[in-house]
Specification:
- With about 160 residues, this protein is α+β, with helices and mostly antiparallel strands.
- It has a single domain (about 1-20, about 35-160), classed as Orthogonal Bundle (Helix Hairpins), CATH 1.10.287.4300.
- The protein is built from 3 helices and 5 strands; from the N terminus they run ββααββαβ.
- The protein has helices at about 35-75, 80-110, 135-150, and strands at about 1-5, 15-20, 115-120, 125-130, 155-160.
- α1 (about 35-75) runs antiparallel to α2.
């Protein structure tokens, strides 16, 4: 999972750096006493861990961005133009977060076990907890995201975890 880290002082918008939050080192070794059920259980736990942590990292990133823009807006010395931009960005972030939540919930109603959605400007990446997806499921996911996020289908990228 990659996240945007914002650096700045005194509530000012600083440099943004893309960082990798994959600090988990999962090692597995075959055990003579293990069976397929154990392997499947570990696999499901890792998948749950991935989706839950990805959503938490994504939400943390949005919260940090909102905090920066809120401080910018509240700054006494912040020029009106920057305050206006901060309000616009706050509204955009909140709209994106809401659309992501709606999409994830609607897609789950279509029989997808779990998923996480990442938005990067106009590109939307969807990672689903499925071995593979039928063409019909792909079309359903694209339709939901296109409708709820006003996205072009060619900008929606779906992958299986």
């Amino acid at each position: 999972m990659q996240a945007l880290q914002i650096h700045g002082e005194n509530g000012s918008l600083g440099d943004a750096t893309l960082v990798n939050n994959n600090n988990v080192d999962v090692q597995s070794s075959p055990d003579a006493n293990s069976n397929d059920t154990d392997a499947k259980l570990v696999s499901n736990e890792e998948a749950d861990f991935y989706f839950e942590n990805s959503r938490l990292d994504r939400d943390k990133m949005y919260s940090q961005m909102l905090e920066v823009y809120q401080k910018m807006y509240e700054g006494e010395t912040t020029p009106m133009e920057q305050k206006t931009m901060a309000v616009t960005e706050i509204a955009k972030i909140n709209s994106t977060r809401n659309a992501i939540m709606i999409c994830e919930n609607l897609i789950k109603t279509k029989g997808i076990k779990d998923l996480v959605i990442f938005v990067n400007d106009t590109q939307i990446s969807v990672v689903v907890d499925e071995e593979e997806l039928a063409t019909e499921k792909i079309a359903q996911i694209q339709n939901i995201i296109s409708r709820e996020m006003n996205a072009l289908v060619e900008n929606i990228h779906i992958s299986c975890k």
